[in-house]
């Protein structure tokens, strides 16, 4: 990028960072920014990063540059970049807003080298706009099937290595930070089933059942459990798991949209990590459907990631990196918004709790598992995709710690409008161990 008329990369960086920012950045053109002994050391290895940032001056430009190796951070572990993400967040007080003249000079310096086609990582999916132009309207059955397949049909073997034997891809519940992941995931399954308080012979529907861990846990208690998912790979894995356990008489998994479940009068319905894919604008319809599926005095347990603050109506509650690389059409809402929709469907919400710290611990465990199995994971899905998942898991852990996102469980009861005595409806106080 260097001739006498161009800006040095260090000058470009100085457009966005205060001079005393605690970071050292060494660039491919020989220029540098910041003190040489800074704890955070970044190397910009290619001019392609500048072109990426001009084309995409947002998180996609940064994410692409990281994934494609246009910059690197000293000491980073691609399976768990959490420490470096912490350091980058600490730079936020030193970020400055450039003037229009500074931005114009920077753009002119980059564009003086010509228009360059930017590279797109193989692991990146189409934008939301591109999906819509190809007929994939968010949260229709067709779009949901495509987006679920994009994420969950990646590889059962890949997921099994970082999730562990539980094959449970949702927040675990820890008694202490030292509790093992497997124990904590069983603790979560038990907590959900204890809250639902179903007895042997009663019927449970698990919507978005994943690989079947909740259905199997319920069947082990003698509960007749049906799980539905749009991921064929997940269902095939879970069906084989059920056969190994000898639970075919109690447990069933189907490749099926929740909107097509023909049965009614379930004693309990659970939705664990499913609502993130439904879309906030569809929550009312979703909970209305749940209300139809469960019998009077039956229970609903909804467990989902939430955001800390309300967003304007219709605005997707997810970021572009997650939308392109991890969860297409993912959408989050605040706990108050969700509880209102459950209430308006006709349920009585009887309990709600925030498990935010537990999800951060869960993600740290997944990063550790990814690190322990790194070579096998790279062999399974490729270096680029494995690198994406290391970033995704670590960034989510940090976001939970910073309270950008939370995770809530809502327990609700479908009231019997004929007026049964309260003791026959549900106990007067919580009946499960916290």
Automatic annotation (TrEMBL):
The keyword S-adenosyl-L-methionine applies. It comes from Bifidobacterium primatium. GO terms for biological process: lipid biosynthetic process; methylation. Belongs to the CFA/CMAS family. Pfam families: CMAS (PF02353). Keywords: Lipid metabolism, Methyltransferase, S-adenosyl-L-methionine, Transferase. The active site is at 396. This is SAM-dependent methyltransferase. Coiled coil: none annotated. GO terms for molecular function: methyltransferase activity. The keyword Lipid metabolism applies.
């Amino acid at each position: 990028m260097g001739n006498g008329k161009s800006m040095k990369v260090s000058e470009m960086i100085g457009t966005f960072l205060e001079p005393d920012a605690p970071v050292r950045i060494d660039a491919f053109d020989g220029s540098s920014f910041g003190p040489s002994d800074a704890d955070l050391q970044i190397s910009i290895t290619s001019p392609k990063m500048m072109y990426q940032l001009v084309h995409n001056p947002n998180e996609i430009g940064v994410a692409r540059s990281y994934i494609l190796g246009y910059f690197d951070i000293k000491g980073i572990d691609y399976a768990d970049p959490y420490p470096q993400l912490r350091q980058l967040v600490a730079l936020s007080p030193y970020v400055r807003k450039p003037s229009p003249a500074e931005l114009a000079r920077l753009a002119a310096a980059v564009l003086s080298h010509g228009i360059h086609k930017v590279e797109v990582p193989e692991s990146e999916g189409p934008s939301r706009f591109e999906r819509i132009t190809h007929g994939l309207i968010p949260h229709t059955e067709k779009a949901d099937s495509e987006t679920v397949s994009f994420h969950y049909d990646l590889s059962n073997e890949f997921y099994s290595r970082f999730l562990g034997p539980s094959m449970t891809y949702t927040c675990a519940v820890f008694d202490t930070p030292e509790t093992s992941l497997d124990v904590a995931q069983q603790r979560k399954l038990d907590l959900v089933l204890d809250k639902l308080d179903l007895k042997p012979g009663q019927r449970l529907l698990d919507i978005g059942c994943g690989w079947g861990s909740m259905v199997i846990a319920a069947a082990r208690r003698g509960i007749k459990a049906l799980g539905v998912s749009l991921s064929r790979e997940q269902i095939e894995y879970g069906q084989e798991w059920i056969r190994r356990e000898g639970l075919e008489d109690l447990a069933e998994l189907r490749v099926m949209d929740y909107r097509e479940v023909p049965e009614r009068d379930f004693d309990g319905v659970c939705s664990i990590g499913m609502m993130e894919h439904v879309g906030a604008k569809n929550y009312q319809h979703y909970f209305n459907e749940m209300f139809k599926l469960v019998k009077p005095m039956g229970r609903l347990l909804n467990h989902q990631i939430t955001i800390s603050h309300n967003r304007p109506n219709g605005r997707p509650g997810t970021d572009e990196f997650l939308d392109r690389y991890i969860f297409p059409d993912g959408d989050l809402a605040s706990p108050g918004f969700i509880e209102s929709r459950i209430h308006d469907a006709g349920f009585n919400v009887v309990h709600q709790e925030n498990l935010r710290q537990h999800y951060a611990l869960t993600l740290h465990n997944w990063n550790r598992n990814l690190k322990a199995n790194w070579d096998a994971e790279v062999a399974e899905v490729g270096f680029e995709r494995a690198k994406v998942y290391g970033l995704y898991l670590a960034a989510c852990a940090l976001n939970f710690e910073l309270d950008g996102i939370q995770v809530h469980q809502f327990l609700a009861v479908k009231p019997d409008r004929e007026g049964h005595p309260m003791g026959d409806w549900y106990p007067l106080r919580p009946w499960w161990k916290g």
